[in-house]
Amino acid sequence: MRNWTIFEPPGGAERTLDGAARFVTLRDGFSKIAFLVPILWLPFRRCWLALAVYVAVQAILALIVSALGLSQGVALVLSALPNVAVGLEASWLRSRALEKRGYRSVATVLARSAEEAEAVFFREWLITTPEERPAPSASAGSAPYRPAPPGVLGVFPQPRAAR
Predict the structure, then answer these.
(1) How many other C-beta atoms lie within 10 A of the C-beta of residue 107?
(2) What are the boundaries of the signal sequence (predicted)?
């Protein structure tokens, strides 16, 4: 199972199938294509600031390698580090780019595929309006907040303290 984040388009969307087609679904996790070709992936996903940082880091690493006269193996490892960072942060970079364009994160769904995540989200979205959604409430088993007694740091009491 994977986490999927659903983004609503700027200005909202009509509760129709055409409105639903404007939503964007992003998978959390490592992106292989962003790792392999970040120089193409970043502009394709409109991550302009990240592209500028990526190019600057690669240029700085190339200068360091040439200035220190490092071996080709070390140079290869160093040049792969920014690719790893882009691959690991690809979904975060894309979500920030969407938010800058006016998209709004409306749901996070746990599902096996994008289709399953969209089905779970839209099943609820198409039949309810924002006014009909119940407000979050405390569950029956939850207890009210109660501060910790003196002498307790977090959940661990201090050694040799009165019990």
Answers:
(1) 17
(2) none
